[in-house]
Every structure is written in C-alpha cells, then in structure tokens.
TrEMBL record:
Record lineage: Bacteria, Pseudomonadati, Pseudomonadota, Alphaproteobacteria, Hyphomicrobiales
UniProt cross-references to Pfam families, sorted A to Z: Xre-like-HTH (PF20432), Xre_MbcA_ParS_C (PF09722)
Domain Antitoxin Xre/MbcA/ParS-like toxin-binding: from-to ranges: 90-140
Species of provenance: Bosea caraganae
Ranges of residues in domain Antitoxin Xre-like helix-turn-helix: 26-85
Coiled-coil zones: none
GO molecular function: DNA binding
InterPro entries (UniProt xref): Antitox_Xre (IPR011979), Xre-like_HTH (IPR046847), Xre/MbcA/ParS-like_toxin-bd (IPR024467)
UniProt protein name: DUF2384 domain-containing protein
Length: 143
C-alpha cells in the first residue's frame, strides 16, 4: 500500500515527527507551500534528460518568482503531490525508475492512447484513471 511517507520521500520532504508522514501532515505542508526544491527533485526523477519538464507544472516566469519566495502555491503543490503519488505507485509496480518512466511516458490504450504522465498532470480525475491502471497491474487484474 502506498503511504504518505512515500509521497513525501519522492518530494524530498524530510519527515519531522510522526505527524509529517500522515495525510494531514502532507496536506498541511502543501497548504503552507512546498519548497521549490520538491519540484526540481520530482522533475529530475521523472524526466532526468528534460530540463524543461518542470515547466509543465509551473510556467517558467512563475517558477522564477517561486524560486525567489522558495515556495510553490497550494495548487502547484497539489499537482506535484498527485504526480509524486503516481510515480511512487509506478515505481512499486515496475520496480525500476526506467520501467516506471516507460509506463508513464508511453501512450496507453486504456487512456485513449494518451500518455499517463499527461493525464496525471492534467487533473485529479485523470490521475485516478492512471492510479487505477497501476493498481490493476499491481494486483493482477486486467490492465
């Protein structure tokens, strides 16, 4: 089962006490504004060869402003946590970064031949579709 501590780990958030790894601890951190380093870390994990990937989450000009403030907005943090959740589950299912990336960046028939990563970034409903496919793969049902 995917834990909130795993999502925090993907985002590079230090776990400070037992509350930090709980759903409400993660929500609080997102609402307070995740550090811009969380975006940089997630972009390096998912697309290490694409320096522009992080701008899929935050436009370049906005990113530069966020870097000055050292914090992302709550909406940007939610999007990051959503992708971190999908990445964590993809890593759990596929066991390697390379195979998880291959799944996330390759068009999938159950997503009308769209790439899972694009669907996850787009919105929460899309993310649930991708997480459902990953859950089916993990637990051996049709995907």
């Amino acid at each position: 089962m995917l834990t909130f501590a795993a999502i925090a780990d993907v985002l590079g958030l230090p776990v400070k006490g037992p509350a930090a790894a709980t759903p409400f601890g993660l929500i609080s951190r997102i609402e307070d504004g995740l550090p811009t380093g969380a975006l940089d870390r997630l972009a390096r994990l998912l697309a290490p060869d694409d320096a522009q990937f992080k701008y899929r989450f935050v436009p370049k000009a906005t990113y530069e402003r966020r870097k000055t403030a050292h914090r992302l907005s709550a909406d940007e943090g939610i999007r990051l946590a959503r992708v971190a959740r999908a990445w964590s589950l993809a890593r759990d299912v596929w066991q390697t970064d390379e195979d998880a990336r291959d799944f996330l960046f390759r068009p999938h028939a159950m997503l009308e031949d769209k790439r899972p990563i694009d669907i996850v970034i787009q919105n929460e409903i899309g993310a649930e579709l991708v997480l459902d496919i990953l859950g089916r793969l993990k637990y051996g049902t049709a995907a």
